[in-house]
Amino acid sequence: MFTSTIYQSRRNILSSKIKNGIVLLIGNTNSPLDYKANSYPFHQDDTFRYYFGINKADYAGVIDLDSGEEILFGNKYTIEDKIWSSNLPDLNELAFSAGIEKSKNIRELQIYISSQIEKKRLIHHIPYARAENINLITGLLGYYNPSSVLVDSIIEQRIVKSEEEVNEIEDAITVSGKIYDVARKLSIPGKKESEILSAMLYKTALSETTTSFAPIVTVRGETLHNESRENILKENDLLLIDFGIFSKEGYASDNTRTFPVGGEFTSLQKDIYSIVLNAQLKAIDTVKPGLNNLEVHKTACLTIADGLKSLGLMNGNVQDAVESGAHALFFPHGIGHLLGLTTHDMEVFGEDLVGYGKGLKRSSQFGLRSLRLARELREGFVLTIEPGIYFIPQLIDIWQSENKCKDFINYDKLQTFRQFGGIRIEDDVIVTKTSSRVLGKPIPK
Ligand SMILES: [Mn+2]
Questions:
Q1: Which of 56, 59, 158, 313 has its CA 20 to 30 A from that of 262?
Q2: 163-438, which class in CATH?
C-alpha cells in the first residue's frame, strides 16, 4: 500500500466535491470459477483500491459526508480462516494503513446501511461490471441507482495521475520491457506462439506479478484481438505482441511491439513498419495539454494515409481520404485509451463518459467510432498511443465488393498484401505541462 496519508487525502478530495449523504464503496469478493471454494484469481475493484488501498476480498468503506466519519468494514479472521489461508491481516491494522480510525465486521454493514436508510440518508454508490457487486448493492440498499455526482467526481479525480501513480505505471512498463526482451530472443522460425507466451508468463511470475489483460501473441496480427496460440512462427512472419502487467499497487502497463521472426524485416515489412512508427512518433509529438485527443488520432490517420499513398495503396488527397474514413480499412481502431488501475481506465463508468466527457459526441463512422479517448487532454493524463496498419482479407473483400472509398484505395495493388498480417506499436505516455513523455524504460522499436 501507499502511505495512509495518500488514501486520506484521496478521500478528502472526493468528500469535498459531494455535498451530503454517504459514499458507499465496496471491494470485490472472490468470484467462483465453478463452485464457491474454487475462485478466479482475486482482483480488487479499482475504485475501492484507489480510495482504500486494500487488496483483499470482502471489504467495504463508507464515508459520511455530513459528519466526516469513515468506517472500514472487513473480515475479522478466525483461527479457522488462518488454518486455510495465509496473509490474513488484522482489520484494525488494515484500517490504520488506510488512514481510517473506525473498523467494523463486514457482517455489520447491512445493519449500518439499514439504519442510514431509516434516517433517510442519501447513499451514493458507483456502477459495477460484476454481477456480484450489483447484487450486493441491491441487497444492501433495496435499489441499484449509481450516483452521477459520485461518478463525475471520481472520474475528475482519477483522470489526473499523481506522482506515485505514474511511478507505478513506469515500474510496470519497465518490468514489461524485460519480458519483451525474452519474447524477442525466442522469436525464431519453428517456435510456437504458445512457447513465446509461456516464456513471457514465466518471466511475469518470476517478477511476482500477473498480466493486466489477456496477452496477444500472434503471427496473425491483422485480427485485432487474436487470442490464437497454436501458430508456428515462420521465416518472414510478423509477430505481434500486445502485453501488460500490474505494478505492486495494481497499476497496469499496456504495450505492443511487432517484430520480424528471425530478426530481419523484408523490405515491404520495413516500409509498412516505418509508416506505423512514423504515425506513432508524430502522434506522441502532438500530445499536449489543451488539445483534444481526437486531433492526436487524426494525426496518426493522416500519417498512415500519406504513407500508404506513397506506397501506391491509397490515392487522392490525404485530408479528403481521412475525412471519408478510407484509411480505416487499414487502421480500424482508435489511437488509444486512458491507462491507470485498469487497462482501459475507468471504462466501467461508461466509455463515453470517461473518454469523451460531456461536450463531445462519438462519431458513427467506421474506424472513428472505435476511438475510446477523444476528450481534451490535461497535464497528468496517462494514455496509450497505439496506431497500426492491418490487412484484413475479409474486410478488403467487403469494401471492394461495395466499391467503398474507391477513389482513395488502390484495390488492385492491395491483392498482393492479403497475407501481409498486421503491425501495431503501442507506448504509454503522460501529458506534461507543455507536451508529453513516454513512460518507462524504452522498449526497443
Ligand atoms: Mn492498449
A1: 313
A2: alpha beta
